[in-house]
Amino acid sequence: MLKPFKTPSIVGTKDELWFVKYFYEDPENGKIKEFQVNEGINRIKDPVIKKQEITRLCEAVTEAFESGEYNLFTVTRAIAKYNSERSEEFAAIDAALGNGPLNTD
Fold it and tell me: Which of 9, 58, 13 minimizes the C-alpha distance to 34?
């Protein structure tokens, strides 16, 4: 049986913006759709930390897919878990930048 997704990949732009890109089959029509997530990682200015965090996010999304139980809610939970683990660091970054608390909605 074919997987309904292509393995997520990390994409970085020349402007130092990063995101995780993945393709998933729309169950309603069978067409493949592209999705991108970054979960606030582009607020991180240190390139080493940014690369570590985008890698962790990509691994979280990949794990959700490869578990065999993927659906939109599974990925949402994986990203929420990632955000929960990083919320203190993101809050500190926001505070340092004067942006106030991180909105995780």
Answer: 9
Q: What backbone torsions phi and psi does residue 35 show, to the nearest 5 degrees? A: -130, 150
Q: Which residue has the tokens 């979280």?
A: 60
| E strand intervals along 26-96 | 32-37
Structure tokens at 69: 């139980």
Domain boundaries, the chain: 5-97
Q: Is there a contact between 19 and 63 (Cβ–Cβ < 8 Å)?
A: no
* Tokens read off for 70: 């993927």
Q: What is the pLDDT of residues 55-70, one digit of tens each?
A: 999 998 888 888 876 6
Distance separating alpha carbons of residues 102 and 72, to the nearest angstrom? 23
pTM beyond 0.90: no
